Amino acid sequence: MKRRVAVLISGRGSNMVALIEAAATPDFPAEIAVVVANRADASGLEKARAHGVATEVIESRPFGADRAGFEAALSARLEAHGIELICLAGFMRLFTAQFTQTWQGRMLNVHPSLLPSFPGLDPHGQALRAGVKLSGATVHFVTAETDAGPIVMQEAVVVKDDDTTETLSARILEAEHRIYPQALRLLAEGRLAGRGWCLVWTRGALAPGSIDSRSIASQVKEPDMMLPNSPEGRDVAYQLHPYTNARAHQENGPLVIVRGEGPYVYDAAGRRYFEALSGLWCVALGFSEKRLMDAACRQMQTLPFGHSFTSRAHLPSIDLAEKLVSLAPSPMSKVFFTNSGSEANDTILKLIAYRSNALGEPRRKKVISRMRAYHGVTLASASLTGLPANHGSFDLPLPNHFHTGAPHFYREGELGESEEEFASRRAEELEALILREGPETIAAFFGEPVMGAGGVVVPPVTYWDRIQEVLRKYDILLVADEVICGFGRTGRMFGCETYAITPDVMVVSKQITSGYFPLSAILMNARMFEPIADETSRIGVLGHGFTAGGHPVGTAVALETIKIIEERDLVAHAARMGAYMQSRLAAFADHPLVGEVRGVGLIAALELVLDKKTRRAAATPGAIGTIANRLLVERGILTRNMADAVAICPALIVDQAQIDELVDGFKSMLEALPAAVVGLAPAELARSWKTACAVPVRPLDALCPPAGSNHAFLPRSLPTWGSRGTVSGPPSGPGDGDDPAVVDRQRDLAVFEPQRRLAE
């Protein structure tokens, strides 16, 4: 007779579905009698019932305020069903000591990463690692891979309460068997039954007898301690993620990517995803360019480290500096190497102050960037960035940082205004800010040719012409942040070429190494360099630099990256494929939830709205974009939404068939989107979507973003700033409060325009 097993799950319940399907096979060693679900989706419960599994849903969270009450109710339910074993199928936080003692020896942690061990999923067992350690004895399973990929069990060792060990069997499983059902069979047969025994899964080819059982036993201390062994579990236990809601991450866990090939990446379950954002706007040559790996390996073998302090140099950095100066769209004099775009922009701010002092202009220290700009996350570069999430609770921006309006005509153009008129207005606003602060105090203006993280904002016609006129008029340096645009992204080698920008300083990173090695570079013209050089002579040193700046491996990889881009003519290829991609995306402009399709070259975005006429999005900025992003992940596409703009930025090597695949995935997402967001809009809009999209409209509450959604640019309320800044959109005119389009515009401006620096 099969043992009765309960499955405890949380979240969407996809892991439970896999368990239910496995339990439906005749040779499964246990009967799943009860599914105790915490916020499980309806599809999982329906599938459980379809297989004849008794289901019971508990809505409260096991690690909430009433955890003891939940656990008491849970134990009662499980005992009533005669449960002998609990499978923790999902990332469940720690239970109380009382609960774990009650169920000691009858708990098996099965993280979602373990589920691919079922037939038909993840034949390579890439993510087979999950476990629990409780007080008392421990069972340690050691696994390995054959050359062909299947997982085999090499050894199972029981660490008993008296710290003696017993080897149950060598090679319990053959290569064709799956570990999870076999391990559960051992429990079902009672071979591992006993006080305090549980399973610890470990991946790695350890020889029999190599396990230090005493060290394992010594780690087992607290009766309520769960030590994660899955990649997902260990990630949640030990890592703080950037641009992530840490509490939501603790509950939901990560998507673990294990390998890449071309423009695709694969998760721990072997599922393929189209990396539609090239990682983070950076993997120009795809995820498997062997020439870059070989370049790194050769340099590692030749000179694995070298620095450029105190007049030292090495060949890769010399060659790369020369190459970058030769590629620059306007005359440049010198290159300074850093490790990231943030470090580069931070360094430029220091060098600007250094230069102003050298010129005898100590008041010229103020800098201007734009609302929605992204220039990094260090204290100084984050102050340049114009996004609320990068300022709120960080006590930023720092003094002397000012922000003018973003060049987003769709969102910030006035009624009846042409693109040229909008560009002129933005230039006039910049000039007004300069005059208010005093031209003699403004040192530099920072701008991305095309804004990236601010929502892929493509500048309108004449915008950069008018901005440069103002900067030249007041002798203000222009810093072009080419971190995303550089090396072919816009269909030219640099975004400055695409928009006829003549910068004094350029910042490059990301695609310079195709993301294979951290590296960034600052290119500066003589106007920038010469005063700095004079000041180093006066002081005796340039007191700035980074240990890994201009690292020989990174610069060698960058040289090979540029060589490949030139040899394969990838800039022209990006222009051709970009034109094709933009033409295909343009077909979405008529979709009732697409407000704007924008882009240039191989970078684009879809701006999602609930009402095209008023350009209104949901009450919570980013709600629609977050849902769209989830729908894309379900369709095997990884990208990123910046509020309600979903970005597209494939590798430069992408071909036409792959663009078709990508665009078709977006089409499928848009077909599902009206049903997914119907709860966010009035009923009359939902009816119009149904007619326009010809798809059934039904509420999908599970897809709506929860409180604390894992989204970097999703403020739950308007940000507040220090006494030196304010948050506001343009002042309302007479009657504006009655116009929903104006109200919506003001809301968007309040969210995306972090502050308008006022004169003290």
Q: Which short descriptors sum up this protein?
A:
760 residues; alpha/beta; 7-stranded mixed β-sheet; 5-stranded parallel β-sheet; 24 strands; globular; disordered C terminus
Report on this model:
The protein is α/β, with parallel strands linked by helices and 760 residues long. The chain is 35% helix and 16% strand. It is built from 24 helices and 24 strands. The strands form five sheets. Strands 13-19-18-17-16-14-15 form a seven-stranded mixed sheet, with helices on both faces. It is globular. Mean pLDDT is 75; it is low at 11-15, 60-64, 89-94, 109-161, 163-229 and 695-760.
Helix % is: 25-40%
Strand order of the largest sheet: 13-19-18-17-16-14-15
- Biggest beta-sheet profile: 7 strands, mixed
Straight-line distance between termini = 81 Å
Number of strands: 24
**Which structural class best describes the helix and strand composition?**
alpha/beta
Strand content: 15-25%
Low-confidence stretches: 11-15, 60-64, 89-94, 109-161, 163-229, 695-760
